[in-house]
Amino acid sequence: xxxxxxRRLYLCVSHRDDMSTFxxxxxxxxxxxxxxxxxxxxxxxxRKTAKIMIPICRDYGVPFIMNDSPxxxxxxxxxxxxxxxxxxxxxxxxxxxxxxxxxxxxxxAESEFTQALKTDATYISAGPIVATPTKAGREPTxxxxxxxxxxxxxxxxxxxxxxDASNIFDLVVAGLHxxxxxxxxxxAKDPEAxxxxxxxxxxxxxxx
Length: 208
Prior knowledge:
By secondary structure, this protein is an alpha/beta fold. The chain has a single domain (9-207), classed as TIM Barrel (Alpha-Beta Barrel), CATH 3.20.20.70. The protein is 43% helix and 16% strand. It contains 9 helices and 8 strands. Helix 7 links the parallel strand 7 and strand 8. Helix 1 packs parallel to helix 9 and helix 7 packs parallel to helix 9.
């Protein structure tokens, strides 16, 4: 399976009309993995959006991940799929996508993480460490949960929940390494500048 540990910034983004300009901007800024996370629109829109995103990701050497559906990931030629606790199993995703696919799995509690370690997921996400509208209604886990997950894991753990340029330095200093970003980039007035700022904070934190 691919080693994603050096890819510090993982963008989750839903369909947007300016994807053809937004995505290259954040990739220039340092985003290292991209997931199309679209919960509200039908598969036709997801296919069309993926077909815009995949060539851009290829140009930058960045993996492209589909959310929830390994079948759709296979159809569009994605590099992998990310699933949640209530979605299709990691084992079934692996059967459909093969040994080289990237498969991610969300966890929100210690028991879920323990079970995740028994799968062959490529990476595991942990959080949200703070409450976020991306996961409406889900109780935050706090940073201690993410730190515990990372300490126990033999693969990258991507931290979710409110990561932005104001806190990413402190999160690295606390001991975390890999981060999912959403609103810090998707709601930025200048996405490229916002991505550069996150990358600079990471460089500063890992060099300190």
